[in-house]
Structures are given as structure tokens and as C-alpha cells.
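Aim 2, interim progress. The first record below pairs a target sequence with its C-alpha cells.
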Amino acid sequence: MLATWLSCLGSSERETAERRRPFVHNAERWLTLPNGNEAAVCDECFPQSATAAHLCLPECIFPASDILEVHEHVVDGKVAPEGQPWFIIGYGPPASGKGGIVAALERLSAFGVTPRNTVAAEVDGLFQNRLRVGRRFSAQQERLSAAARTDQEREQAAGRLYTAYRFVADQISDAVLWKAAARRMNVYYETTGACRRRLLDGPPPSAPAPPPPLCHPCAANLPSTPTPAPTPTRYPLPATRYP
């Protein structure tokens, strides 16, 4: 009996040591695909598992099949406008009505902007939707909410889940923008407005490219009173299609 107990204890210690190994060297965290490549195990990481001890890799949060579905939903089916397309920047704090700008421009027929010929690169909408990724995000929200012991834990978990998805969706949003531009569609881009001067004017032609900002470097220079939304500006593009 003692030998059995010692054997079980040794086995448990080995399993614990294996789980504590660095992620990159932990065989339990990786699987080999039919083509010989390796991929991370997605069911033992956060947010796929609410109790996981480490964060999922991007391909677990946003699988390739979901990225294709998002592209089909956001870009495919749109049509290019007549003439030069518009690049529209909507800025303002959350819940300020940015989502209604395209509809407002549609009523101003002089611009020729409609939902049919405009791709809205709204980052949160890439994972807060009725697609597979949106359904998975909602289900994970519910699991985390149910597992939370306090309102503070529930709020913290929701914020961290949002951060995990938002980071990956931000990269996908860039690809959506480029795809829409290559197809010469109108593009609607949302921002909080903290750095709108950089978006509208850009750096001087002779100025070196600035390093990536850690936060919002131009926020301190913003006026205390709101300013009117900018007029949409046309952007020149070669007459090429996305392959």
C-alpha cells in the first residue's frame, strides 16, 4: 500500500512539474498537425478556458476560419462607388453617435456614400456580432460572469476578456482596411479622437517617422471644447483590385 501511495505521489509530482514547464517546452500545450507543423492546444488557455493559467495564442482567439467569415461579412458583397472613394474618419467618445455617420452621409447624396459601398472598420464589431467569433465571445462572457465571486471580479474578467479579443481584432481591422482600399471602396474609420490631428494631417513630409506611442501623446494638446467632425477626404488609389 505504501508503495502504491509513493507511486501515485511521484506521478502527481511529475504531472505538476510538466504543467509548470515553460509554455514553449511543454509538450502538453502543443499538438502536431497532419502536415507536420505544430499548433497550440486551444482548449487549455484563456479565454477558451475560464480557469486557464496562461493566455491563448492569437490563432486560438481568432481562428483562420473566423477571420475569413469576418472578411466575408464586412467586405465581400460591397461595391465600389463611382469615381474616387472616400476615407471617412469618425471621432468622439464612446456612445457619441459615431456609428450613425455613414447613414447621415447617405442622406447627403452629394457624397455618394452608402452602406452598400462603404466598409466600416469598427474594431469591436469584428468580435461583438452574430458570427461564430461573436457567439463564442458571448458564451465566454457568460462563463466568466458565472464563475466570478464578486461584482469586482466579474467586471475585471469582462474587461480582460475584451482586451484579449480587442488586441487580435485590431490587427484584423487593418487587413480589412487594406482590402477595402485595394477594392476602391469607401472606408469609414472610427477613433476616440485622442490623436485625430495625426490622422488628419500626418507628419510633415521631411519629418522622420515617430516611434510608436505608448498611449495618446497628443491628448494633452486637445481643446477642451468639442470641434466639428471633419469633412470626408478623398484618397488617391490605383485602379487595382485585391487579388
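The second target in this work package is listed in the same format:
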Amino acid sequence: MNIDTSSISLKNILILSSREMSSKFTPILTRKFPKLDFVSAVFADDLKVFEPAFLKQTRLLSFLSNQIVPIDILNQLGFGAINLHPGTPRYPGWQAWQFALYDGIPDFGITAHWMEEKVDTGKIIALHNYSIRHVKSEQEMAQLTINMALNCLYSWSSRLLSQTPLETLDIEWSSHKTTKSMYRQKCAITTDITNSELTKIVRAFGNGDGLTKPNITIDGICYELLNGQNVALDRPFIKVHHYLFAQKQTTGLS
């Protein structure tokens, strides 16, 4: 951000989040900060419609979003872009909370940081750690992550949505960044997998990331984990230890 904002005021907060997420907190922030205008976007492409004059008076707030903001948009934001990352600086990257659950660490957290061109590299503004020792499932971890992120947003909002310069913490991001490729590798089950390892994978990655689910390929046929889904077994399936995998459904015209 190289824009001189000495003569202008913060007027707009551009929320980048899913519709479901933004509906949870935007009305609350609107009431708390009546002098600010809140505008929502779901996808990075949605940001292209905003004029430079609007962006110059704007701060972008990314909340649990997997969208990557283009550098030309970041450079036009007069008051920068802040991301609430579902993870600690030890876990930058894709689906951090699922990798943390797989690793079995005792504590996790939410990180607020300035957004840069490279994902999860910007200066850290705030960090909140909490225990995950009691978490037993992916669903429980997902809900806890959302709840803690919302709590952090409400707690930090007066700082994050202020025109006052924000102090940053002397904390560095880990150089080990989780990626979509790493996620696919974790979900690729082999026939010699142990029961304990498969249980760890199902616990952490069982519902997938919207792109990939735990799967195993046998004789050229890919089977995906059902993970307790109540579906009719109207397609071939196999059992790996005590987990069911059904033949992956394909889409498209034949």
C-alpha cells in the first residue's frame, strides 16, 4: 500500500467472505460502526467492479476466505487489507485447521495480519491461541475455528476497523506452508495404510476441502470416503479397515 491517505478518511469496509459467514457478523459490525459503509464480496473476481476512488477510501477485511486478492487491488486499497487466518503463524496456507488436527497439536489459534501478494506472509497484527486438546472430530474443529474467529473479530474490531495506524507483533510466519497439493497427498490412501493412520486422516480430512476427499484407487477405479454419509450404496464400494469408500461419481457429458 503506497497511497497517501493523510488527506482522506476511512469510509468503507470491504468484506471478503462467504455469504453465510458475512451474514453472521456484518450486521453486528454495521451497528457498532455506523459511520462506516460495509460492502460484501464473495469471490476475488467480485473486487474488480470497484472503482479506484472507492478503493482509496477502503480497507478490505478477509474473513476465513480462501480467495486470493489480486495485487492490483491490494495496491489500490487506501487503508490496506487485513486477513483473519484460521490458524497460527506456525500454520500458514491451505486448510490450516485440518492439518493442525491431523498433527495432533494441543493448541491452535486465529491470526490477524496485513495481506501481501504472497499468501499468509504479511505483518501480524493480533494472535489468539486456544486449546484443542478436547477436539475429537473434523466437524468439531471446524465449528470451534469459526466460533473463535468470530470472537476474535468482535474483540479486535475496534483496532482492525480504525484509521489509527496499527502496531504489529514481532512474530514471523513459518516457512512451511500447507498447500492444495499437500492436501491431495494426505487424502491419497494406499492399500497398505494402517488402521491408526487412516483414522487420523479421516478425523482431520474426512469431509474434504471442497476439492478433494480421502480416496483410494484400485485397479484404476477411484473410491472416495463416505465418512458416515447416509447414502444408498448404488455404486461399487470397498471397505478399508472399518471405513467405507464408494466409487467416485463423475460429472459431465459422456
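Residues 138-160 form the longest helix (23 residues). This observation will shape the mutagenesis plan for the next reporting period.
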